[in-house]
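Can't paste images in this forum, so I'm doing it all in text. The chain is below; anyone willing to post the predicted structure tokens underneath?
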Amino acid sequence: MFVPESPALLRIVGNRLLLSVPLLLVVSTLTFLLEALIPGDVARTIVGPQGTQEQYLQLKHSLGLDQPLLTRYQQWLESVVRGDFGTSLFNHEPVAVLLSGRLSVTLSLVVGSTLVAAIVGLLIGIAGALRSDIAGTAVDALSMFGLAIPNFFLGLILIALFAVAIPLFPATGYVPFDESPLDWARSLVLPVALATPGIAVVAKQTRDSMRVILERPFIRTLRAAGVPRRSIIFKHALRSAAAPVVTVLGLIFVASLGGTVVVESVFAMPGLGGLAVQATTQHDLPLIQGVAVYFTALVVVVNLLIDLAYGWLDPGVRIE
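Text version of the structure:
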């Protein structure tokens, strides 16, 4: 197992963590300001059309919405530093509790989609690099198809085929892993199948990188030395070609994270994406801020893992 012991790699990890602090600050600030520009009044929404002006003003004061925008942001920031994300204006529950309850759904979708894209895309890409030009053309065609078809349309097709016409998997809903691992897996099959665009991108990147590496002199030397073909492909060529693929996988993870809004809507899954839409509709600012911070933290973690993967793939990164 790779451990980031070298000073150079530790410095890279440290710099990444230091950069995450201003990133979180900028994202939270922009989210706060953009939400303030959205038309609507959360206090008026809660009071409803039957509420009096006195009730409206009282509720607005109790929620702190009558204070200046910068003052409200400063108070929120001070609370976050203490580990308190505040309370939802509508649900009256701690934001951290609401987010933690839905985080597993979103992570299951995003991690599952990324793993499927990685495994299937790598296999197709390797096959395309080793086979004839026909296989390469097939990979290009798959890439164009995967990038062209909209996710929501593909999701509807999958539901019509494998949940209605052939009822193999549930069309909507999510089953927690601790309730039933089998039902949990079945509930994720169709949403994770939307990883087709990711599979296409990984396959094309793998094929192009592998073709370049397989023409390198050190590969010819390994062949002349009698090294088994499987070892040349998976131990030497694939590892040398994996750096750009790792970058693509990081981008796929981030794109899947942003796409959870659509996926969770199509398959009616209670994740962070659906919660973000609900909070935006209701102008529930503490909840929106919490979702933005969670999403940003996940992106930071993924970027850190990519840096560690580079250190494992390229020994030069571990040398100061």
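DSSP finds 13 helices and no strands in the chain. The chain has one domain: 7-41+98-318.
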